[in-house]
Amino acid sequence: MRMSGRSQQSPRRRAFAPVVLALALLTAACGGGTGSSGTSGADVSPASASERAAAAEKQLAKNTLLPLQGKAPAPQLPVTVDSSDGRKVTVNDASRILPLNGGVAEIVFTLGLGDRVVGRDITATFAEAKKLPQVTQAHDVSAESVLSLRPTVVLADTDTGPREAIDQIRDAGVPVVVLDPATELSDVATRTTRIAEALGVPEAGKALNARIARELAAAKAAVPQGSRPKVAFLYMRGSAAVYLMGGKGSGADSLIDAAGAVDAGVEAGLDKPFTPLTSEALVSAQPDVILMMDKGLASVGGVDGLVDIPGIRETPAGADRRIVTAEDGVLLSFGPRTPLVIDILVDRIHQG
């Protein structure tokens, strides 16, 4: 995650210069506690926003996960759980797990069950999953690829498809647990609980939720008093001429709020997750900071290309070139790495 603009030199120094401190923070993050209730260390000691952001950036740069400490949990099965497609699903065996969503896969691995995962979908881009066979083409699930891996349980989202592929997997006798998509910060705990219950490790789910809650509380505690900048989340794909501004329900709105800022789109009255961007709406919103995904910013020619889009220069964010970016697969993943995103946002968006 990066900041562009007048303050660019300062965050780079603050993010990368204190290497010893960042390593110390990460050592604490990996080493505190014992057993499945171990913490990643976010609450080990107080730290400034810049220190937390430096440690978080180093961890995200590794693109690896921090599983719960201690011995991997042993699934207690069978269990019968509610599936978001209206079914009740009984899981008898969690020896071969296949998550069809990158965020779901992150939770499974962080619970300590990564060695049971037999495949991945295209959105599972973290290092531990990269060697696994991919079972999606673009974002469509291949039932044949899934069944060839002989999964004993499949975890999917309500928007996983096509439906025919999911039906084919289910008709082959494989339990398919469907989950609601995670679209805001509060969904992390719900989704973690449901995944842990479906895999027969509810106590590990409770431990992971407790860890995430501690990390989020520590990140929020670093928000500077009296600072409430306005942040606009822009989703752009220049090659496809897609220019959208986030509003209520975009997902980014809950992250911006957690980082102690105001979502400019929500404040401007955008009541849909995304609205086509207009120069009038952007100028009216007057964001202090613009938040984007890395690929989105690259697709419009970087910061120089972005500020040439009508309306951008007329905002405080555009005039000061205050652009914060995050890796596409992490920003809205809403999983175990989300506290790291909040750590970085707290530092970057509150810089003067």
TrEMBL record:
Biological classification of the source: Bacteria, Bacillati, Actinomycetota, Actinomycetes, Kitasatosporales
Keywords associated with the record: Signal
Species name: Streptomyces plumbiresistens
Signal peptide, first to last residue: 1-32
InterPro entries documented for this protein: ABC_Transporter_SBP, ABC_transptr_periplasmic_BD
Domain of life: Bacteria
Ranges of biased composition (kind: Low complexity): 39-56
Segments for region (Disordered): 34-56
Protein name: ABC transporter substrate-binding protein
Residue ranges constituting the Fe/B12 periplasmic-binding domain according to the UniProt record: 96-352
Similarity comment: family membership: Belongs to the bacterial solute-binding protein 8 family.
